[in-house]
Amino acid sequence: MLDVAEQTASALAEPAVWRHKDLLDTDTLTRAEIELILATAEAMREVRSRPVTKVATLRGVTVVTLFYEQSTRTRASFEVAAKALGADVVNLTATGSSVEKGESLIDTVRTLEAIGADMVVMRHAASGAPYLAARHTGASVVNGGDGRHAHPTQALLDLFTLRRHLGSLEGRKIVIVGDVLHSRVARSNLWTLLAMGAAVTLCGPATLLPWTLAGRSETGSCDVTSDFDSAIEGADAVMALRLQTERQAGGLVPSLREYVAGYQLNAQRLARARAGALVLHPGPMNEGVEIAPAVAHGLASVIEEQVANGVAVRMAILYLIATARGVR
Ligand code: NCD
Predict the structure, then answer these.
(1) Do 276 and 233 fall within a single domain?
(2) Ligand 1 centroid vs 239 CA: distance in angstroms?
(3) What is the pLDDT of residue 216?
(4) What is the CA(282)–ligand 1 centre distance, in A?
């Protein structure tokens, strides 16, 4: 049986080499690097389907999850991914660590490095925090979500899920709908989807759309609109975003009823998309707000698959970073 490295290499026509110490966002990734992650994740998915789902590839590697913001799936998914590769995992949260005593982020990551952390998976409410951390530690930093800014592994698992169903994304219409303004998921997805040639539409009430994203970007074009019924017309996939109540100072949405009326992904709206269009959501869902329960759990939904694919994609990222560090 091929090992993971051989499988990855054989899946790539022109194998790219991973050179990044950290993964902070998707905007720095080339298309070849994105393809490398997807191919590696495909190999990891195969590893996960074996009777013995664990390998020893990252034996002796210490992965610390450092979560300053709440999370269920991202943290658990990284932990499962690291353990499936045989790494040692230490989980830290802001409560119960010296962060509560006021230890600075820089001191914290330096301490983690001193005790032998090779990689730190970090989530923080402040946009940019993982960038600061990465500059002050030799450990590799993987961004598990920073404020409203970026969530690279979510975007990559979304892409992996889309690709498994749609094949090439060249020219495919992908609509991202909802609270785009506060969404690190939308931003990181935009870079990967454009890099893969998709036609992306960002949709939401004007108060929840960042105007700076309108128009052309460096890598492709992105439409921005507040008209969901038109935007969804002929879409190949629709990604609904959670209304981020915790990041709103208030006043951006006139009322929940109006928001639901204009922007909920429901069966009538989905019927306007291409037949067989996919429904995605990064979770956690506010069912009955941004997405109707019948759609969230309907035939078009790949939401549970996204969660399952998250493990394989995170395994791929941990593996590639470990390879670049020369720790395997
Ligand atoms: C997202 C996040 O935390 O950014 N969730 C996740 O990681 N699965 C999206 C969200 O919270 O809305």
Answers:
(1) yes
(2) 13
(3) 47
(4) 6
**Stretch 91-98: mean pLDDT:** 80
Nearest to 90 by CA among 110, 63, 114, 116: 63
Ligand 1 centroid to 151 CA: how many Å?
A: 8
* Whole-number Å distance between alpha carbons of 84 and 289: 35
Paired tokens of 112 = 């983690």
Domain count, the chain: 2
Question: Do residue 156 and residue 293 come from a single domain?
Answer: yes
- The HSE-up count of residue 39 (CA atoms within 13 Å, CB side) is 21
- pLDDT surpasses 60 at 215: no
If one residue of 127, 158, 179, 242 were mutated to test the ligand 1 pocket, choosing by the most ligand atoms within 8 A of its CB, it would be 242
pLDDT at position 157 over 50: yes
User: Is residue 210 very low, low, confident or very high in pLDDT (cuts 50, 70, 90)?
Assistant: confident
Q: For residue 110, what is the domain's CATH number? A: 3.40.50.1370
**230 domain-assigned:** yes
Rounded distance from Cα 254 to ligand 1 centre (Å):
23
Same-domain check for residues 174 and 132:
no
- Domain extent for 239: 152-297
Q: Are 328 and 3 in contact (CB under 8 A)?
A: no
Q: For residues 59 and 194, state if they share a domain.
A: no
Pocket of ligand 1 (CB under 6 A): 73-74, 145, 151, 154, 184-185, 242, 244, 282-283
Residue 293 C-alpha to ligand 1 middle, in angstroms?
18
Residues 160, 33 share a domain: no
Q: Supply φ then ψ for residue 115, to 5 degrees.
A: -90, 5
In a domain? residue 182: yes
15: how many CB neighbours lie within 10 A of its CB? 14
pLDDT tens column, 172-194 = 999 999 999 999 999 999 999 99
